Amino acid sequence: MEGFKTFEDLDVYKIAREFRKKIFKLSKELPQLEKYNLANQIRRAAVSLTNCIAEGHGRFHYQENIQFLRQSRGSLEELIDDLNICIDENYVEDTVSNRLKEEAYEVLKKLNGYIKYLCRCKEEAKEVKEIVKAI
What we know:
By secondary structure, the protein is an all-alpha fold. 79% of the residues lie in helices and 0% in strands.
């Protein structure tokens, strides 16, 4: 995590952004009847995935950042379910949907890792604060 300056430098953001691009491409390939339903929902969840990473990074406290990452994780899980809908309705080939689901789970691993990292940082900051307070 050393050396990053903006949320755009975060690995989790970079891979989530790439995933979002693929999801947007998928949404454009859905049938016309889904243009205002599933396609719109998929795009909103994909935007939320990366927006929440960015917004959390802009928060001052670890806990706020973690909360936004959890929201991002929820949007990602929603996208996985949307992929299941695409599979169930035969909107997309199995190979495409399975590849996207694999990528989604990789993003999920990165999100969980970043949350874990921030939790450790939060605990370390708390310990330092207690030490300083005791002095």
